[in-house]
Amino acid sequence: MANITMDMIKDLRERTGVGIMDCKKALAETDGDMDKAVRLLKERGAVTAAKKSDRNAKEGIITARINDEKNHVTCIELQCETDFVAKNEVFQALASDITCIASKVENANVEAVLEASNANGEKVVDIINALIQKMGENTVLSRVENLKTDGSFGIYEHFTKKLVTIVEFNCKSTPKGIELANQVAMHVASEKPLAVNRDGLDDNTVKEQRDIFEKITLDSGKSGDMVSKIVDGKMNSWFSESVLIDQKLFSDNKITIKSLVDSIGKEAGCDTPQIKNMYIISVGA
Question: Is the dihedral of CA 127, 129, 132, 133 positive or negative?
């Protein structure tokens, strides 16, 4: 049997991030062969991951990647057990790497991305299992969003990595248009509108809000045609707070979202610029 030295254990620990005792056992079982020991620990990583898979992964981060044409966004959620690990540089780097891999997978979803490989031929599922062994926490690729458009996207990633907002436009991207589109996406992160436009609101939500305003107005002593006019006014104010296209920019209430959309269209030579959709993607949601 080979003599297992502290230098060998240290070397294996630096290569794998695994604890000293596990490194020592792996070297002993492989007769001091470093490469075989690394392989053995990787194989056992899958066992470790399986043992931890029933532990609740409720923390995590959202990462996103957009292509140069601004018409394809890939977004993933990588979950873990604690915020401490979510803030770890290794964990965050892995999430970014997985997002890059996912962006190259056709019709990407969780199952397809887990089976995809990096440039070194390592599968995502194996990379995650290795991280589980290193960090000691259950880690789950819980979501993959693969968005494409004939127009362009604006995107905003919150500095906490807990939230990504994406806004889809029917116009192609331009340098100035990208800046404005990203500004709209940042606005969505701040204000979290219920819908892009009034037609996108749930009918029951609108009815419930109107009923509330009507009751408030009647309780105040108003009656007749006055009630309808007052309620209409209150509803218009509510729409301006709840609907993206009716809102004023969160950072400057002299600028409307509609005016930003018109500017994006003008930059792109688009006669009828529109916001087609918006996506608010947050950890655990």
Answer: negative
Q: For residue 133, what are the domain limits?
A: 55-148
CA distance linking residue 282 with residue 2, whole number of Å: 51
Q: Is residue 185 situated within a structural domain?
A: no
Per the structure, the count of domains in the chain is: 2
Give the CATH number of the domain where residue 117 resides: 3.30.479.20
Q: Which amino acid is at 182?
A: N
Q: Show Cβ contacts of residue 277 under 8 Å, excluding neighbours closer than 6 positions.
A: 167, 168, 196
Report the Cα–Cα distance between both ends of the chain, in Å, rounded. 53
Per-residue pLDDT, averaged over 82-90, amounts to: 93
Side-chain half-sphere of 53: how many Cα atoms within 13 Å? 12
Task: Give, for 245, the enclosing helix (H) or strand (E).
Answer: none
Whether 62 and 125 share a structural domain: yes
List, for residues 213-257, the tens digit of each pLDDT value: 999 999 888 887 899 999 999 999 999 999 999 999 999 989 999
Report how far residue 265's alpha carbon sits from residue 169's, in angstroms, rounded to the nearest whole number.
9
